[in-house]
């Protein structure tokens, strides 16, 4: 097909925002849509080439896959090989184990399935530490190419028009699937091909149109296409449901450029500028190099690398991209290749080159990250102790019902935590997983008072509220809240404690965990979720106060920016503060924590709702002072981590709340029991 320089320019528009998005520059919050632009371009080019070959009688499936091997594998294998030594030197065992698994997955082009199955999502902070995360998009493309050429060749007997409308119907079905997927299966929706295929097929539709009767150049439509892409790049972010109907902006925008930005249009002249074309030519290699550079920079640094370093690495990715394009991509795409004179030799060489990656990846996975490579595999007794503080260890994990699906069956269970004889007070703690991690704070209280917990991870203690896009079906959390209220109605409790990750539910997380009133059929917006929270939380507090019990609302602990386990293990691996007693290391710990202003800003909305709560027997407790050091809410000290992840307290952290909690409940006991000691 005829070369179009503006398509190479469009590749530059796609890859640069992706790189800057992964570098952490918020102005490119929607830079991830560059991948969607690539999907449409790929679908267009492949379809146009296949149609020309099928109609010309020159189509060969072997030739097609040879072209793909020459195009994709040399640069990909080079980048994978470059990652291995840095992974060996800098990755903690858990990270190297996961890296090994990703090596194997990349070789077989199934890394999208691997990342789908792993915890967290594409926008999670932990994803930034995965050097091969970006290969999910290559896997989706190759899965498409596995079926598209054969399907096109087989179905061609039914005629071009029928095949075209079948492609359109499949694209529409996939688009409808992704609109369902972002609500109910967000990780699968992002990674799996059935939810992405419509973007590639949008390019295929353009290929059908362009290979039939080429549309005339159109200034307005081509400008609209570019505007749609730029709009998505600048105005989308990680909270945008994606992919979904929102993805129509970059996809339709790319299609408009492919169809109408021909020579003579402003967009074609702009995209054909030398700088855009140059970056576009090396865009594949640039895409391959940028994520490993950023991931290893983040792994090597205990905190977030400075912006200047990430910007410099973005530049380095372009330099490496040029070198690999010039000396790897180009030579392998030319024929013949020395030592690989035939198609069979190309396939054989590809298989042989893949073997070391599969072998190393399996070894890293089976050995759980090859801990023997470390100078001290156990990280030393001091490190082992500090790492142990990351674990919850909450009273022997007693009666823990977390947030997995099987835990839903335990939602009606009342769990006794402390049951002394003749208790002064009977205390019921309800809430999500945060209500579990504060249990160590009740150790002293439990010597004279009975303490029970009834809760389920991801279910806030809010009556009449459904958590949409959460872990459970919509009815699970409201049913749990009803059982909690009914339990208190039956009597026998003096105090109800409400504890949760309060900031999660008003605004959600990546457009999930949003609140709606039970029975509402619509999916909530952020505004409606906030309204539901602002209405139902005060009502819930009042529901319990009306039953005559005292109510204690425990404020959410400050949320952290880093994973403590990663910081502690990384420090030991890199030899920073080997005994973790140096002032320098403690200072570095605190620098990875949020400032008081940052965290207070994040919790401002919830604090405003807490300020509206009223009642004679109501206490709202905050433990922020426990975590304040030098203007920050820190996640640990020389004795260990206060957190087991970014928002849940560790066993050690839970014990730090005990003095303040004991003092508050002593006051509550005096208030409730009166001077004569009776209730």
TrEMBL record:
It comes from Starkeya nomas. One of its GO terms (cellular component) is membrane. Residues 409-661 form the SGNH domain. The chain crosses the membrane at residues 12-32, 38-61, 73-93, 99-116, 163-183, 195-212, 219-236, 242-261, 268-287, 307-325, 345-366. InterPro entries: Acyl_transf_3_dom, Acyltransferase_3, SGNH. The keyword Transmembrane helix applies. Keywords: Membrane, Transmembrane, Transmembrane helix. Residues 6-325 form the Acyltransferase domain. This is O-acetyltransferase OatA. It comes from the Bacteria. GO terms for molecular function: acyltransferase activity, transferring groups other than amino-acyl groups. GO terms for biological process: lipopolysaccharide biosynthetic process.
């Amino acid at each position: 097909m005829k070369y179009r320089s503006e398509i190479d320019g469009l590749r530059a528009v796609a890859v640069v925002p992706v790189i800057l998005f992964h570098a952490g520059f918020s102005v490119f919050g929607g830079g991830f849509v560059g991948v969607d632009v690539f999907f449409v371009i790929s679908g267009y080019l492949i379809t146009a080439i296949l149609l020309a070959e099928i109609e010309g009688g020159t189509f060969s499936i072997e030739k097609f896959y040879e072209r793909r091997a020459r195009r994709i594998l040399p640069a990909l294998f080079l980048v994978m090989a470059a990652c291995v030594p840095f992974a060996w030197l800098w990755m903690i065992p858990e990270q190297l184990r996961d890296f090994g698994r990703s090596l194997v997955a990349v070789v077989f082009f199934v890394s999208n399935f691997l990342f789908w199955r792993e915890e967290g999502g594409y926008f999670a902070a932990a994803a930034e530490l995965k050097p091969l995360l970006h290969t999910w998009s290559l896997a989706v493309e190759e899965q498409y190419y596995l079926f598209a050429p054969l399907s096109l060749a087989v179905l061609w007997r039914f005629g071009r028009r029928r095949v075209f409308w079948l492609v359109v119907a499949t694209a529409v079905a996939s688009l409808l699937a992704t609109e369902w997927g972002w609500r109910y299966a967000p990780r699968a929706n992002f990674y799996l091909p059935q939810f992405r295929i419509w973007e590639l097929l949008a390019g295929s539709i353009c290929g059908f149109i362009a290979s039939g009767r080429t549309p005339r150049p159109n200034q307005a439509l081509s400008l609209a296409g570019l505007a749609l892409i730029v709009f998505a790049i600048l105005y989308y972010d990680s909270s945008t449901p994606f992919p979904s109907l929102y993805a129509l902006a970059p996809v339709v925008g790319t299609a408009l450029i492919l169809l109408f930005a021909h020579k003579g249009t402003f967009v074609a002249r702009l995209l054909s500028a030398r700088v855009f074309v140059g970056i576009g030519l090396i865009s594949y290699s640039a895409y391959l190099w940028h994520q490993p550079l950023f991931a290893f920079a983040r792994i090597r640094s205990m905190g977030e690398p400075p912006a200047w370093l990430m910007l410099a690495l973005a530049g380095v990715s372009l330099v490496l991209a040029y070198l690999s394009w010039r000396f790897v991509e180009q030579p392998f795409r030319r024929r013949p290749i020395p030592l690989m004179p035939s198609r069979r030799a190309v396939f054989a060489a590809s298989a042989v080159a893949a073997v070391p990656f599969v072998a190393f990846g399996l070894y890293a996975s089976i050995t759980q990250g090859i801990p023997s490579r470390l100078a001290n595999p156990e990280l030393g007794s001091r490190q082992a102790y500090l790492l142990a503080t990351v674990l919850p260890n909450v009273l022997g994990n007693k009666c823990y019902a977390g947030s997995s699906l099987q835990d839903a069956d335990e939602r009606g269970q009342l769990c006794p935590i402390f049951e002394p004889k003749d208790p002064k007070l009977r205390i019921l703690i309800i809430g999500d997983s945060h209500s579990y991690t504060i249990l160590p704070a009740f150790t002293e209280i439990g010597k004279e008072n009975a303490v029970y917990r009834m809760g389920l991870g991801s279910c806030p203690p809010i009556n009449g509220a459904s958590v949409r896009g959460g872990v459970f079906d919509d009815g699970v959390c409201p049913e749990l809240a009803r059982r909690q209220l009914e339990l208190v109605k039956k009597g026998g409790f003096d105090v109800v404690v409400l504890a949760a990750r309060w900031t999660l539910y008003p605004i959600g997380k990546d457009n999930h965990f949003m609140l709606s009133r039970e029975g509402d059929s619509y999916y909530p917006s952020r505004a409606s979720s906030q309204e539901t929270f602002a209405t139902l939380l005060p009502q819930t507090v009042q529901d319990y106060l009306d039953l005559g019990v005292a109510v204690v609302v425990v404020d959410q602990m400050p949320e952290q920016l880093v994973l403590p386990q990663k910081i502690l293990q990384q420090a030991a691996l890199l030899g920073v503060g080997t005994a973790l007693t140096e002032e320098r290391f403690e200072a570095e710990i605190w620098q990875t924590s949020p400032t008081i202003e940052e965290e207070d800003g994040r919790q401002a909305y919830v604090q405003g709702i807490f300020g509206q709560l009223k009642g004679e027997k109501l206490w709202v407790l905050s433990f922020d002072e426990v975590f304040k050091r030098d203007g920050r809410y820190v996640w640990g000290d020389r004795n260990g981590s206060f957190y087991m992840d970014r928002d849940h307290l560790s066993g050690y952290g839970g014990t730090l709340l005990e003095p303040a909690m004991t003092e508050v409940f002593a006051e509550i006991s005096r208030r409730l029991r009166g001077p004569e000691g009776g209730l």
